[in-house]
Amino acid sequence: MVAVIDYDAGNIKSVEKAVIALGGDVRVTRNREEILRADHVILPGVGAFGDAMEKLHRYGLVDVIMETVQAHIPFLGICLGLQLLFESSEESEGVKGLGILPGRIVRLPEETGLKIPHIGWNSLRYPNKGRLFEGISEESYVYFVHSYYLKAEEPGIVTATTEYAAHIHASVEKGNVFACQFHPEKSSEVGMRILRNFMQVTK
After folding, report:
1. Which of 65, 79, 120, 141 has its CA at a distance of 20 to 30 angstroms from the CA of residue 188?
2. Catalytic-residue membership of 167
3. Does residue 180 have an active-site annotation?
4. Residues near 174 by Cβ (< 8 Å), separated by ≥ 6?
């Protein structure tokens, strides 16, 4: 069973539909026992960092997420879900992220003349081998919607990068924790392959 964590943060329905399309049994939930029983857990998200952290605390989900990671249940953060896994964000100064992975979320620079937010398709490069990208060639295109991006402190966890106004750490992997700044559920066949690869990860 795949648990999609529900904290009122957008794009949950599209993630649920993608998992169902791949033949997965999915639960959209904020129930602790249901999440910890899951074979895979997804933290989606679209919105503001500070507001999302407030909701995770309000619904008692911070401790559940920590337990999930400690239990080595395969865990995937998507878009804002990636950002929340890190320590802080320029979007919400003074708000602590989950701090599961070391790094900071910073705003895309506007002086490049490129439109912010970054909305559209960009190709990926793989600085390190990642299980999410098995069978997916470099320069494959995925769909982004974001104004802030990750600067990970550990280069070794970065499994995909892209270029848009900055050098963007687009995907990370550490142990059974995975995250994508882009939206695999909106990235056509490449995105579905990424989600299938995630659903095949075991403890």
Report:
1. 65
2. no
3. no
4. 101, 154, 157
Residue 110 identity (one-letter amino acid): E
CB 185 within 8 A of CB 81: no
* pTM, full prediction: 0.97
Q: Which of 16, 91, 173, 185 is catalytic?
A: 185
**CB 17: neighbour CB atoms within 10 A?**
12
Domains and CATH numbers, the chain: 2-199 (3.40.50.880)
Strand order of the sheet with strand 148-152? 88-89, 103-107, 148-152
**CA angle (167, 172, 174) in 5-degree steps:** 145
Pick the catalytic residue from 40, 118, 146, 183. 183
One of 40, 79, 169, 180 is an active-site residue; which one? 79
Please say if 183 is a catalytic residue: yes
Q: Read off the tokens for 156.
A: 């070794």
Structure tokens at 5: 């964590």
Query: Tens digit of pLDDT for each residue in 122-157?
Result: 999 999 999 999 999 999 999 999 999 999 999 999
CA–CA separation, 35 and 68 (whole Å): 8
